[in-house]
Amino acid sequence: MYKIVSAIFLAENIKKFEIEAPRIAKKRKAGQFIMLRTGESGERVPLTIAGSDPDKGTITIIVQGMGKTTRELNAKEAGDTINDIVGPLGTPSHIENFGTAVSIGGGVGTAIAYPTAVALKEAGNYVITINGARTRDLVILENEMKAVSDESYITTDDGSCGFHGFVTQKLQELIDSGRKIDYVLAIGPIPMMKAVAEVTRPYGIMTVVSLNPIMVDGTGMCGGCRVTVGGETRFACVDGPEFDAHQVDFRNLSDRNKLYLPEERQSSETFTHRCRLAQKA
User: Consecutive 10-residue runs of the chain (281 residues): their mean pLDDT?
Assistant: First the structure.
């Protein structure tokens, strides 16, 4: 069992957890993730490690309550426990002094972009961060991103905070200004990552994305997380989750992520029904 030290909502349906996991806290690196199971009969879900404190022996994850398991997890509070956590998994982010590096997080993807932004800054890069969300209430880690950035921008679809528009528009604005950008990291919804890749492609800017396919075991054994990169099949859990954005087949990734939508919808509806019955009781 893994004890939850703190649990705080950052935005609607987005919750930050600090969890006791001393071995993972000591070994994890930017870009890596855990596989988590809330209870003995629960499914395994992959969640990126947003941070760690080796001295306290804790790791930090940020969870958006979308399906049954993530909503079940977000119902937990400090003092509760999580049944299983395995990690750190995946290949760490490739970090070096590229020069000027742009770290882009879309929605809860900011939680994944943040630790890599930290590592890029520590490696001596000039770090620009772009934190995108649909509206002001969904912006997360604003202060944390600013703290590790030489320049920091917020974008919102509705213009309620920062730049009125998408992260791609802000990125294009930076490129059009004549700034030399050497590296771009983009993490968020699949359409956003694809759009970022298309913005940087004509300029030959090295661009990396962190992929989010369906995972079962996180160790490369099941093959559920296979993605097509450069025309070849790769496993996101062991070969990634980060890949060259200009080589990723985003259509294939999107199609595969939709394979179990009916089952996911049914599971979520059943969970909602049980919650309502429990409230009435």
Answer: 94 93 95 89 87 95 87 93 93 96 93 92 97 93 94 95 95 95 96 96 97 83 89 93 96 80 65 56 54
Token duo for residue 155: 């974008």
- Name the pTM for this structure: 0.87
Residue 20 confidence (pLDDT)? 97
CA dist list (Å): 75 to 17, 78, 272, 273 = 11, 10, 12, 15
End-to-end CA distance of the chain: 28
Burial class (CB in 10 A: 0-12, 13-18, 19+), 155: buried
Helix axes 250-257, 190-200, angle to 10 degrees: 180
CA dist list (Å): 152 to 73, 163, 185, 272: 31, 11, 14, 38
Please, which residues have CB within 8 angstroms of residue 64's CB and are 6 or more apart in sequence?
13, 14, 70, 107, 108
Phi, psi of 2 (to 5 degrees): -120, 120
Q: Show the domains of the chain with their CATH numbers.
A: 2-89 (2.40.30.10), 100-210 (3.40.50.80)
CB 125 within 8 A of CB 100: yes
Cα separation, 89 vs 78, in Å, equals: 25
